[in-house]
Give the backbone structure.
Amino acid sequence: MENELINLKNNALSLILEAEDEKELEEIKLQFLGRSGKLTQAIRKLPKIDIEKRKELGVLANEVKETIEASVDEKKKQLKKGILMSKIRKIDVTNLHGCVKNDSFKTNKFVKPSIKLCSENIIINNNAIHKV
């Protein structure tokens, strides 16, 4: 039973590390922690084990559950950060500070900075963010 719990933890962590989006992470979480999840099924076997061994395995099972939950949460944060960073990379940072020369019209007129995110309708004008 101890080896089963350790194997479940290792399998879950490897799948979590390979996950590429939040939907996949939720599926992994359900696969291990859901009502009919692998870890849930293992925990249901605990009452059939000797009392002396049950305490030790119960503590291990709870540690495995907490580790999986924490890993899923951390991976979600990483994925959200990656999405945010990809959006930030699409911003034209040359227009963020002060006035810039408007080269698109080939004049010497200076214009106030204004940028637009490519993937969403968000405009940044004069250091303020506006959803359009």
Observations:
- Residues 98-121 have pLDDT under 50 and may be disordered.
- The chain has two domains: 2-89, 93-131.
